[in-house]
Specification:
By secondary structure, this protein is α+β, with helices and mostly antiparallel strands. The chain is about 45% helix and about 15% strand. A hairpin with a 2-residue loop joins β1 (about 105-115) and β2.
Length: about 200
């Protein structure tokens, strides 16, 4: 087994025994029957990265990797510089395509008034996790974070719709503020919604 995988496995086992915010994540990693343990370290991290993104624990996994970096600094393993630099390498090249293939939208929250919608939350049908899009910004589709539905702010401007109704409202919205939606991002978001318009 390559050095980086050995170091990571030891770190995960160590975190399983600690009563901190990483314990549940470490247990999930160890108990995941689909974990590609026979693959390379890079593929192993890519897999966990995507699973935590879909499961709403992506932010915790980011912190987990940061602590792994510190662990590696104090661990006598070979090629330590590779491990440290790897922790901050982002594997995003195909995340968005995987999300489009696996994220089935059940409902949509639109944030804003009828003349200016500026934020969208897409709720996954089964897990009830939410995928957030900022319409006025250029969206990095390969670095999206999925959050728990309960974390969606429920203010007066936040309204819940079916996918079909949300598409209709977004198409009719005049976006009258000084900052219009980013055209490229908006087109990709609309395509994503259309793919889920069943």
């Amino acid at each position: 087994m390559e050095t980086r995988k050995v170091a990571f496995k030891n770190f995960v086992i160590l975190k399983m025994s600690k009563n901190d915010k990483y314990k549940n994540l470490a247990c999930d990693i160890i108990n995941d029957s689909s974990l590609p343990i026979d693959k390379s370290f890079d593929n192993l991290i890519k897999y966990i990265d995507f699973q935590t993104m879909m499961g709403g624990t992506h932010e915790i996994f980011g912190d987990f990797l940061s602590e792994f970096k510190e662990y590696c600094k104090n661990t006598p393993v070979k090629k330590i510089e590779d491990i440290v630099s790897y922790c901050f390498t982002v594997f995003n090249s195909d995340k968005w395509n995987k999300i489009k293939d696996n994220f089935c939208i059940g409902t949509v929250y639109l944030v804003g008034n009828d003349e200016d919608i500026y934020k969208i939350y897409c709720i996954e049908e089964k897990s009830k996790n939410a995928l957030k899009f900022e319409l006025k910004l250029k969206v990095d589709f390969n670095n999206l974070i999925i959050i728990d539905q309960q974390r969606i702010p429920k203010g007066k401007l936040t309204r819940k719709y079916t996918v079909n109704k949300a598409i209709d409202i977004l198409k009719k919205c005049s976006y009258q503020s000084a900052i219009p939606p980013n055209k490229k991002s908006f087109s990709e978001i609309m395509l994503f919604l259309e793919l889920n318009n069943r």
